[in-house]
Amino acid sequence: MEEQVGLWRKGPWTAEEDRLLIKHVKVHGEGRWNSVARLAGLKRNAKSCRLRWVNYLRPDLKRGKITPHEERIILDLHARWGNRWSTIARSLPGRTDNEIKNYWRTHFNNKGKTCLEDSIKLKARLLKRQQFHQEQQKQLQLQKNDEDMKKLMLLLEESENNKLVWPQQDMVPQEIQNLFYPTMFVDDSDHQQANTGNSMNEDFVLWDGLWNLENVVLDVTTKGCVRGLDMAAMSYY
DNA sequence: AAGAAAAACAACCGCCGACTG
DNA sequence: GCAGTCGGCGGTTGTTTTTCT
Questions:
Q1: Helices marked H in chain A — which ranges?
Q2: 3-state SS assignment for residue A158
Q3: How many other C-beta atoms can be found within 10 angstroms of the C-beta atom of residue A138?
Q4: Nucleotides on strand C with an atom closer than 7 A to protein CB?
């Protein structure tokens, strides 16, 4: 058995190896990884075959970046479970334990770095994100202004054609009111939506909280380290 | 534009628990 | 009860890609 170990191929998988493994699993299903190599004609050991399938070839895997929503789940579950990556992965369909583990290590595991390094990097990252955020807001506002102006021109044109007059403000159509006095018509339901609604609003709420965190974090990092999840979470933002 | 540093990704290793003969 | 096998998990390392200076 020992002499066979030397025969196992190592290193990156080739497209042909992937094809053989996929074909084998399609026919025989997952499991019995020890026989996979023999049956599929692969020079890979059981562990390597399983890992390749689980982490890369499985059809239900989700590709692409970890979303902010997934990130929050990871943070939350890591606070609860610690490094139990497979447990965390079960709450994120399409994501593997390996992926989550790598993501955590890259973004949150700052062991061994000094507080000064943390604070400098944090500051730079915050500034960058803040600039990006402001730029995004500016673009949105410009776009909205443009649309509003078009709407307004249309309505005015319509009014002129129909010779409409609005002698009192309460007779002004709601659309026109909104264009002129948008802030006057924000009601509570809007705020509730901001707290519980779509991801866009959720992100704004999150950002607001995070910008406020900046001072706290920088203050803390000058006095000493914050340990555990909080520091990890903050250091990312 | 180029080199350095950081981030992201892929894969291996050792350990452990469950299962089986 | 025990040894061997298998599958799964978490830690770690190596490689590639992206970003920064």
A1: 2-5, 15-28, 33-40, 46-52, 68-81, 85-90, 97-107, 115-162, 174-180, 188-196, 199-223, 229-236
A2: helix
A3: 10
A4: 5-13, 20-21
**Protein residue closest via CA to C1' of C5:** A34
| Total count of residues recorded for chain A | 237
pTM score over 0.70: no
Residues A130-175 have pLDDT tens digits of: 445 455 555 556 666 666 666 666 766 665 555 444 444 454 445 4
Nucleotide nearest to A103 (CA to C1'): B8
- Rounded to whole angstroms, the distance from the CA of residue A130 to the C1' of nucleotide C14 is 35
On the 0-12 / 13-18 / 19+ scale of CB atoms within 10 A, A21 is buried
User: Between the CA of A130 and the C1' of B1, what is the distance in angstroms?
Assistant: 29
For strand B, is any atom closer than 7 Å to the CB of A47? yes
